[in-house]
Structures are given as structure tokens and as C-alpha cells.
Amino acid sequence: MAEELEKKLNKREQYKARMKPYDYFAEFDTLDFNSLGEGDRYYLQDFGIFNTDFLEDEFTVRLRNGGGRISHQQFSYIADIVEEYDLTLVITARGGFQLHDVYADDLKEIWHKLNTNSLTTWQSFGDNIRNIVTDVYDGANQYAHLEVHPLIEQMQDYILKNPKYVGMLPRRVSIGISGNSANVSSFFANDIYFALAKKGDRYGFNVYMGGKNTEIAQDTGIFLEYEEVFEFFKAFVSTFYKHGSRFSRSKTRLYYMIQDLGFPKLLELLQQEFQKPFQSSGEMQLQDVVFEEFEELKDGTYAYCYQSDFGRLSVKEMRELASFAEKSQASLRIGIDQNIYILGLKQKAVPFSSPALSSTIVACAGNLCPYAVWSIKDETSYLPLEMIYKNRIKVGFSGCAKGCGRHRHTDIGLIGLKTNNFGATDGGARVFIGAEHDHGQSVARQLFSMVPFVHLKKTITLVVKLYEQSRCTNFQLYAHQILNRYSEDFVALWHLYNLKNNTTLSLPLQEKNITPQEEQVLLKESFHNFTLVEDDFKKSISALVKELWTVEGEDPHYKPPIKRVNFR
Fold first, then answer.
1. Can you tell me the distance from the alpha carbon of 242 to that of 248, in angstroms, rounded to the nearest whole number?
2. Does residue 393 sit in helix, strand or coil?
3. In this structure, is the dihedral angle defined by the CA atoms of residues 303, 306, 307 and 308, taken in order, positive or negative?
């Protein structure tokens, strides 16, 4: 009977059934990292090590950094390791660090060095509670009502190196928590989001569950006091461990557990573990705020946002930032927007400038990761960066559909993909727009399935110009009042005919969603050359993108992906 059940488990669960990851760790120092099996690769993720069978001697190591806080000493120490082993470091979209170009012969030594000085790589990949995130201004600025970092430390300490849970959850779990009424980044893409709320005169948290890169976390109807969060967290981990699905790998996230059980049953199971009645939701405390390069903090000091090169950091930058923080008696924090924040400055001045206009753009690791085709951080050059920065438009750029750039939870989302649909060019991006993300209303909808890179800047420039002409105070309001009143296909055709005619005709403001018939009339009245293919919006879109974007001859903008060669 047990053997039959094991056969139904997904492959990772079959390995876990034979040996727990915590027990596997006893073999770590005896491993030959030049000769790993499939099971080794699964287990090693639980200790922060990622590797694939088609890049056998090259590894990625990820540090977890609860709440994004790091000392200048730790920052300098990591820089030393990066320099010593000639590694590539990027900031993750969960406020941690990822080290690439780690070679098999160096891995063991690097891993041991990274797991000292209060640093850890444990459970940063694999089926674990991933790095727990919060707002970068937690406890510090005028919007900070409850400091949550102590709760993050409690939660992290509970799961780190706990034999029962190391690598043993049905799937990874992402957790966001914020005690701030205005956040630099949205947290509704997390499996669980503890959002600042108020009940009577008490601040606490409303609980949202079931988010992921393509879904918005939903309100559970639960309000937690500050002192209840850790107990709820433990109850959740136990419930997911016991009742989460371990069969089809594509259906093991919390989102699918909620779909299968329904919220009432899930909350019943949670309450059995929590062992006390739940309070009903309080009033959510969230407002939209534009954060500047320098922000004044509650104590009268200032914070500075160092905009990284789309998540990339050099050793020189790291040392310069760490040295300045030490001399200024300031603290460092890593944002989930992939930027470095220096808090506690006496004056609004720093002796350096940011290398990029990246404060509102999250870009995944790109072809540093085996799943991405393009160097996504470089492909940001196809974007109208000045316009995006000026309008504080949030952009998520992912290198594949896994969505590490959170492209469905931003104003404009992109996935860099390959295409042979437009002649000589074979690089492009799928485009999404219009998420109402800060308040968890909706994810972005698809605008175009593929825009060749050579046409991407013109296309995104048009999107931004139409937003500017709307005079909405932010892009989410534009999405709510205008974009999302129309169907996806209509919005695509509206942008395509503007591109075809080299115009910037604004989308009309609508008081309610309009019908397909009304959309067709509006297109005919607005564009003199509007035609439909077989009276079908989708076929019309297909014909028009081929007409506008086919590249004849050699694409002068095409840059073949850089192939990394191991010279060791």
C-alpha cells in the first residue's frame, strides 16, 4: 500500500519519502559536486544551492536575508567572497542575494563561508518557507505603525534547520508582512500576506492567502493581533505540511490547495492548529505614496535609495556603500525592488550616484538563470527608462513565464521570449499592462503576446504617452478608470492602430465596462483606416502585428545571447 502511494507522489516527494533533506545534509561534505544525480540537485536546493544537469559544473547560491536587513560588515564580507572567487552577484526580488558563476571545485568552500557571520543560505530554494519580506522602511518612516522585523526573525528561526520542515513542505511558500500604511512594493503576489489593518483603535494585520506570480492573494476574513502572528504562522506551516497536495507538481502551491478545499475548510483546519477563534477582518490601512530618492524618517534622519543596475552590484559598489554606511553610522537594507537603501543619514547627501534609473523596475536574473533566454537586465535598454522613471511607473521584467520579475503584479509587465514570427528578429517580449496591484484588486492583462525587441521601445513609449494624456495621478488609477473598462483585444487594437497611424489618440474615459459592439463602433469612429479580419478582433490583431513588426533582412538590433564558457 505504501509503495503504491509513493508511486503517485511527484518525483521530489518520492525522494523526500526515501530520505529527509535534513538527513541528506549529513552527506554534504562528502559530495562530489562534479558528479551529481537528480536527487542531489533536489536536496541541495534546500541549502541554497541550485544546479541543472545541462550546466553540470556551474552553480547558483542564494542567501536568505529576512526582511532585507544586513550589516555593513556582512555586506563587505560578501563582497570579499564575490571578488575572491570572481562571482556575479545580483539582488533578488525577495530582498536577498544570489551568487552566480560558482564552479563545482569552489562550491563547498564558498558555501561554508557564506554560512558564517550570521549569514545563511538555508531554505532559500526548494520546498520551504522562502525569504520573508517586508517594506524596506519597516519601523522607520512616517507610515510605519508596527515594526515587523522581530516577527520575521521569530518566523525564520522557527523554520531554519527544523528537521521536520527543512525541504519537507509540499511546495515553496512566499510570505510578506508589513506594518506600514504605504509600501515601496506590493505584497499581494505572496502565498501569505499579513497586511496592516486597524480594528477599533488597535493596529494589527488582515491575512491574505493564495497569491503567486499570476494571482492576487485573497482576503481570508481574518484579523490578527501583533502577538498572534507567530502562532498563526506556526499553525499555517503545520496545516500546509499535513494537508497540502504532494502529487501533481503543477498543483502543489497554496493557491491550488485553496481551490481544492475552499477557504471555509482551509480556515477550519487552520483553526484546529491555531486553537483559538479567529477575529474578523479589520480595516485595511494602505495608501498610494510616491517615494523619492531621499526620504525623511521618523527620527529626523534621512534614507537614500541607491538604484542598482537593475539588480546587479559590483564589488566596488558594495564596498563603497558599506564604507559610507559605516562612516555615516547608518544602516543598510535590501528592497524587494532590487535597490539598496541607506537609513539614518544626517543630511540629504551622498558622495555617489546611482548607475541606473531602476527604482520602479524589477528585472529577473535573465540568462544567468538557465530558464531565461535573454539577458533581461540588458534588455531594459529597449525601454523608455526616462519616461518610466518620471512617471514612477512600476515595471516587472521576467525572463520566462515563471515570473521572477513579478510581471503580472506591475503597471507594465514583460516576459522576454524567443520568436520566429517576425522574420529576421527572434527576440521579443510578451507585454502585460494594468494591474491594480497595490491594493490587491487584479493582476495585469496581456496587451501583446509578442513584441520584437526592435519595436519594444516605441510600443512602451506609446503606452506611457496615453497614460500621461489621461491625467490620472498614477498608472493604477489609469488602469482602474480607463484600461480595465475595455476588453484585452480592444486595448491591443487601440494601441496597434495608434502605432500604425503614428498617432497618440487617447482611450476615452468610461463610467462602466462597454460591450464588444460598442468597442467596434468606437474603433471605427476613431481610426479612419480601421478594418476587421472576418469580423474578429483576435484575427485582426494577428494580421496587424505581422504588418507592423515583420523585420525584412537582418535585424540590426539583434544581439545573440552570450554563451558563457567555462575556462577553468
1. 16
2. coil
3. negative
DSSP 363-381: E--GGGSTT-SS-HHHHGG
- State which of 249, 284, 319 marks the end of a domain: 284
Lowest mean pLDDT among 54-63, 142-151, 555-564: 555-564
Q: How many domains does the chain have?
A: 2
Q: What is the CATH number of the domain that holds 238?
A: 3.30.413.10
Residue 143 has pLDDT above 70, yes or no: yes
SS3 95: coil
State the residue range of the domain holding 382.
361-549
Q: Is 262 found in the same domain as 164?
A: yes
Residue 566: pLDDT band with limits 50, 70, 90: very low
Choosing from 284, 305, 325, the residue where a domain stops is 284
Residues 85-119 have pLDDT tens digits of 999 999 999 999 999 999 999 999 999 999 999 99
- List 363's β-bridge partners, or say none: 397
**How large is the angle between the packed helices 104-114 and 72-84, nearest 10 degrees?**
170
Query: Which of 507, 468, 500, 506 shows the shortest CA–CA distance to 484?
Result: 507
Residue 98 lies in a domain: no
| In the block, residue with C-alpha cell 497586511 | 195
